[in-house]
Amino acid sequence: MKDLVSSLGPVSAVIGAQWGDEGKGKIIDILAEHYDVIARACGGANAGHTIVVGGKKHVFRLLPSGALHAASGKDIFLGAGMVIHIPTLMEEIGLLENAGVAIRERLWISGSAHVVFEYHKDIDALQEERRGDRKIGTTKRGIGPAFADKAARCGLRFSMMDTDEAIHMHLRERERDIRDMYGAKIDVKDELNGVLPHREFLASRTARPDMLHDLIRDKRRVLIEGAQATLLDIDHGTYPYVTSSSTTASGALQGLGLPPKALKSCIGVAKAYCTRVGEGAFVTEAEEEAAKRLRERGGEYGSVTGRPRRCGWLHLPDLRYSAHINGFDCWNITKLDVLDTEPEILVGTGVSAAGKPAYERLPGWKQPTTGIRKFDDLPQNARQFIEFIEKQTLLPVRLIGTGPGREEMIVR
Ligand code: IMP
Asked: Residue 71's CB: how many other CB atoms inside 10 A?
């Protein structure tokens, strides 16, 4: 681990290579120990990572999973590329506090992050309904409408909430537009109730624009926790079945206001197979029987919505594409043990003119790998599978997840 950490350098990013839910939380949790600041750059409460707090499982959506790191005291930074639903943020802060984890004094929010109101969620649901059979399958957390307001320059930034009246005025202005555009209503009182009690606290946690730069200059180490993943990126993903933010490494830098040169390394995270929540093409989606096996063994149910995830096989062209877009230095292949019972491991190598996937069929290993911590202890066929990924993507696999526990990881 020491070698890996020193090779990553002082500013490193962990980015999903598929459609999200690759299991980024675990590597973040492990690496967080070696960093001073954990930063989330983009997206909002559409992300979800399950964290055990005080013996109980909770799903965190806005705070990065690194927020709960055992050795707390790390600064937590929410970047300008985020859209934040304030009641959800306060609920997460409360959950951590109830479990004895202090967070208020180490949380920093960019003044340029935008506020997600209830009306954004209502519009999200309304737009999905109107799409009929062309639904995106959003998480209905108001993400698209909040980013639409941001791009249309009618959103509310955290830095604009300097008085109660400023928020009130903003909502009154939006009220008319929302009625005209969607025939929907804003419940201004309800919106204000969700935000005003927290305004002063949030103002006290608003980061100076150059805060991250100063921290980096002062040799503080910054770990960037990517949210969602490359194939859901608004520009480079499988549009229109994408989220509304920039989920790539460069998107994260933009979302944090850091120059490209600040990033010293980037770890690509991919599952040993592949899942997708929501609609959109998925060429290596497995037949129902295999999909069911992967779903059950991998616990593949959406952490935000509880939806069963669509399951399928690794698709090498996607991995290569993500590696190009993000400039990955290495892979973290997660959940290898989910494949332990498969007689044959399919790996997508491309798509025929008819849109059908081509597969390389690798022999399964049919024995447990759960908890294995040394590469050489893996069954030969599992090692061959990993080496095949390395050869096909021209990147080393430096981390391999072999179970949900923190220790269940091979580091090479
Ligand atoms: P939205 O981000 O709620 O607008 O949803 C757009 C698409 O991105 C849908 O297919 C969602 O299921 C997907 N999505 C958004 N966030 C995540 C995530 O954290 N993991 C997996 N899929 C996500």
From this structure: 7
